[in-house]
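pasting for ref. prot 1 ->
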Amino acid sequence: MFNLDLSLPTNPVLTRYSDTTGELDSVIDLMFLCSGSSKLNNHVIHPDWQLTSDHASLTISISIEEEFVQTAKLSLPKKSDEEEAFIKEVSSIIKSLDTSNLSNQESLKQVVNLLAARIKHAWNANSRKVNIIKHSKKWWNEDCNRTLNKYRESRSLKD
């Protein structure tokens, strides 16, 4: 229901240490982790970390993987000459595509791969690299850039 499984410790030792005479130490502390995870599948019991507590600490190491944050992308400005050229080129590519010999899966795969490669080439030829910044919003345009630059130069509130 919660997608959790009982975690098995890497060092199965007692987790509760009794201060009461005659009462046995026991294992009462449990940890539940994500079901089916190969990275989060067991924990460690640290009896030497209990300090003044009568319970041993339970820990798990969670790796933090490096994340790629894209800071630039290829783009075609709307209603630009580049966009028009790209659309014309793609239309031409589709019109000139030879589909007369699509008799099996392999020939279809070759035509699709050729189409993808030609469209990618057209995209790379007509698009331009833009940096993704806080102003990378749909409403942000060249007018906004000019106005911002004008303000930065003058530092006047009217700009």
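and prot 2 ->
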Amino acid sequence: MEVTVFAQQALCGLTNGMAYAMFAIGLTLIFGVMGTLNIAHGEIYMLGALAFSSFVTYLGINYLLAALITLALLGVAGIAISRIAVLPLLNSPNPLLSVLLSTIGVSIFLTNIALSIWGASTVPLEFPLRGGIPVGAMELSWARIAISGVSVVVIVTLHLFLSRTLMGRKIRAVAQNRIGARLVGINLDREYSLAFGIGCALAALAGILSAPVWVASPYLGQSMILTGFVVVIVGGLGSIRGALVVGLLLGILQSIFGYFLSVYYRDAFTFAVLIITLLLKPGGLFQR
């Protein structure tokens, strides 16, 4: 019985970890290319969940179309945020601190926008398929299967985009050597905005995938941004592979810890992992 429960919690944690990884990869991409942290990343995640849920529940839009509209809106919003609140500060005396403070302001602004539209209430969303697939003595819901499946497809697509396409190679070139990229004619501001927009779209996608499992509300992003930073720091700043591996492992460990010990101390466990990692390997497990 204990083995079955353990396996069930591990599978549930794996789907949570997929959402963590998707969110953290977006954060990592922005940091790797621009060298800055986006504090408003959690609010983009929250808006993704709320907008998607509202399109489906209140407007009756098809799930796939609602997801595409949400991704397009928040991807464009990410590009706009980069142009208004990030790029003008990259040449300041302390760009990391300046952008940090600027995106805190964006985070507060987006939270208040969400509160003015949706209030403090949650937006319900039912997954169109009930039930799930039996796995031994347990059942894995279709919603969690969808999270895992879509996450795998998106992560593989992102890898192919960054490694095989001209736009992706330009982004990697900027991340590896900005001066060299500028010398060969790459427009840094354009690549910065593109990377920021893709990162925000990944955060929104994590919110879309989480909406059927975790109830969407204007405060959903606050806990996610903390977890995302833990994943990024433990995995190694700028390491997409680290964000993926640590996101999956953290999801599994959180689920098992929460079930067998206490869900109330799950966040304490998460930050204990962060502290131990910083003590033993300050650069993260997959330091670039």
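The chain has one domain: 2-119+134-280.
The radius of gyration is 19 Å.
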